[in-house]
Amino acid sequence: MFKISKTLRGHSNDVRGLTVVDDTIISCSRDGTVKKWSGKIPSTVLNSSAGSFINAIDNIGSGLIASGGKDCIIFINSIDDTEVDVGTISNLIGHQNNICSLFSKNNLLISSSWDGTAKVWDVSNFETIYTLDNGNSVLDAIIVSPTTFLTCSSDKLIKLWDKDKVIQTFSGHKDVVRKILPLDDQTFASCSNDGTIKIWNYQGQVLHTLSGHESFIYDMVLLPNGYLVSSSEDRSVRIWKDFQLLQVITLPSISNWCLSNVGNDIVVGTSDNSIRVFTSDTDKVDIEEVKELEEAIKNSTIAEQSLDINRTDVPGYDRLEQPGKEGQTIMVKNHVGTIEAHQWSNNQWNKIGDVVSASGSEKKTHNGKQYDYVFDVDIEDGKPPLKLPFNVTDNVYDTAEKFLADNQLPSTYTQEVVNFIQKNTQGHSITESAADPVITNDVGASSPNKKAKRPLTILPVTEYIKFNEFKNDQLVKGLTKFNQSNGNSIDVPFTFEVSSKESLEIINTIVKEIFTWDESSYVIGFDILRVLVPKLGISDIISDEDLPRLILAFIEKGSKSENPTSLMMLLKFLCNLVDTVLFIQIFLTEDGDIQFNHYLIDLLSELKDKLDSLKEHKHASQFLTNLSTFVYDLSVLQLKKSITSLDLCIFFGTNKLNENSESLYRLAIAYGNLKTMNLKTPNWKFKSNESRFDSLIEEIGSLS
Asked: What highest taxon heads this organism's lineage (predicted)?
């Protein structure tokens, strides 16, 4: 039986894709990064796509990996890339919408996309060989031979291609087909939103149907020992042997997005930002990890709306005395009346959560199924609205992506749909007509004479943007080099994954040396502070009276630097500092109302003055993005603490900031945040050809 051996934590959003190279795990995430793992620590960030989900990844050989996602680009990166700045060897451009999957074989790479196509690329020169025009969103594609390919799509069909021509269509699934997995030369497997896995031969016959999953099946992997493994939205990973269910592994995460393997060990990427490795080798099992996972599962909750139960018919604990079958789930009532879910696995009942009521609203029916909410979404005037069904137990991002894919809408609207769902499902009942979102490519296309005033679905934005990823080896080497060049003897930790107390000790040692530092050392200093300051506890900060003064002195020295790399790292540190007690101690005073002090005003002015002097530097674009991120984070802080004293107007309309698309977008959100607070803002007009700006511009206009 499989048990957990380790958990890898380091992503800040869902883990959407996995690949393994020489037993090294490499992952991609909705946080926009691709990470290479050393033990339990992400040792290297191989790719970073700011603000854009990365959904797919694969090893293409020769020390290279391919990754792609929301920004429609396939990035080719070296697995051994250890440079400070993430380097991309090549960008493959051609898709027009979200990239769903990547699969490499025979020196070829095949990519699938919501744009209705799969593309076959020659890895030797990164040129497109074939474009397979499916007509519907292609969710996965595999290479059978150098000229034969399989695709699956949102139209519930699987297609076999000879070059770019369809030669066979496989029909059998009742919902969207998510994934295809080659088993041998004669057969392949497919999984679907209908909760089944089907085993096919290439003549189009279904040889076996594996049932048991209770929701969408997202991924499959075949282990060297012949076990087939599947992962699902039903909180489970299931292991199949000879087409029979062998074991069910329940996880605390709802969406188990992706699978890979290290030998016969199973690697799972999940919606709780984690990667978990399961093994059948008892020598690899970590008892503490087993206990931690069991506790997390027991303490999880299951929404009653997702279950077909009658509370009065739920039995007591005596039901647990009867055996079940692998994967079977039952509900029992404990001695205080709470309903618990228990699952039969490894010849015993295991508690997998408490059943709770998530909403008091009436169920709504759509296409024969019941949902907590069914929203009307108007695409344009004069056309009937589209239906957006949602249950409170659904993964909001997957719901948004499925809605857009089913209706052939651009993936650039994913975050807008997510924001709309989250805003309108916050624990209260909502009727179908309570909100009327308009999704359109044309700014202002919705006429106020024809529609009620559109509710805000984007603004205000109240989540800070953080720079939390770090390369442990790089920090260790940097601090070692600092010791050597400055004649210091600062103790260099083996890892910067340290406790609050250890963080305070390292920070104090470093900042007390700042007055002897030269500019070449600022980068490593701010990089270490960026990583360690968020780890400090409130008691650590309050008990150290000198810490705010020393940190402020270092910030003031760093802001006077003319080195763009130092300034970039300073800004990353400031973004991570914003929502800490230390930031409040340094930059805020309380005189009746909370006020920003002159230190922050001077700092912002000094940073803005750097724009012209750095405009020709190769890192100018990243400096602009980091500066706009800091302005954005300050707008979030003002919202959260109702601070009205900071004038950020000097940044709105600054041409240099407008030249960078990502910088402009973050600055525009900051501008919109301040307008939602009715603060004084300049009459700033900005333009962009990117569709993600359309709704934001419309909302800002509605606040004028």
From this structure: Eukaryota
Q: How far apart are CA 535 and CA 132, in angstroms?
A: 49
Which pLDDT tens digit goes with each residue over 166-183?
A: 999 999 999 889 999 999
* Tokens 């603000």 sit on residue: 51
Q: Is 444 left (phi over 0), alpha (psi -120 to 50) or beta?
A: left
Sign, CA dihedral 212-213-214-217, equals negative
Question: Distance of CA 143 to CAs 67, 102, 109, 220, Å?
Answer: 17, 10, 8, 16
CATH fold group of domain 472-702: Leucine-rich Repeat Variant (1.25.10)
Sign of the alpha-carbon torsion through 269, 272, 278, 283: positive
Instruction: Give the integer Cα–Cα distance in Å for 37 and 9.
Output: 10
What's the rounded Cα separation, in Å, for the pair 350 and 340?
10
Name the pairing type of β-strands 73-78 and 265-270.
Answer: unpaired
pLDDT-based confidence at 151, cuts 50/70/90?
very high
Kindly list the distances between the CA atom of residue 80 and the CA atoms of 37, 75, 625, 655, in Å, as whole numbers in the listed order. Answer: 12, 15, 26, 38
- Distance from C-alpha of 635 to C-alpha of 628, rounded to nearest angstrom: 11
Same topology for domains 375-454 and 472-702, yes or no?
Answer: no
Could you report the per-residue pLDDT of 615-634, keeping only the tens digit for each? Answer: 777 777 788 888 989 999 99
Closest CA to 270 of 69, 469, 16, 54: 16
Going through 255-372 in order, the beta strands assigned E by DSSP cover 256-262, 265-270, 274-279, 301-303, 329-333, 339-345, 348-356, 364-366, 369-371
User: Residue 655: pLDDT band by 50, 70, 90 thresholds?
Assistant: low
Contact residues for 676 (Cβ-Cβ < 8 A; gap 6+): 456, 459, 460, 639, 703
- Cα 210 versus chain centre, distance: 30
Global confidence as pTM: 0.55
| Domain boundaries of the chain, sorted by first residue | 301-356, 375-454, 472-702
Helix, strand, or coil (residue 312): helix
CATH code: domain 375-454 is 3.10.20.870
11/257 Cα distance (integer angstroms): 14
- 192 neighbors 178 (Cβ within 8 angstroms): yes
- Say which residues have a Cβ less than 8 Å from residue 579's Cβ, sequence separation at least 6: 464, 633, 637, 640
Q: Residue 161, SS3?
A: strand
Closest CA to 330 of 346, 344, 318: 344
Q: Are β-strands 64-69 and 386-390 bridged in parallel, bridged antiparallel, or unpaired?
A: unpaired
Average pLDDT on 468-491 reads 73
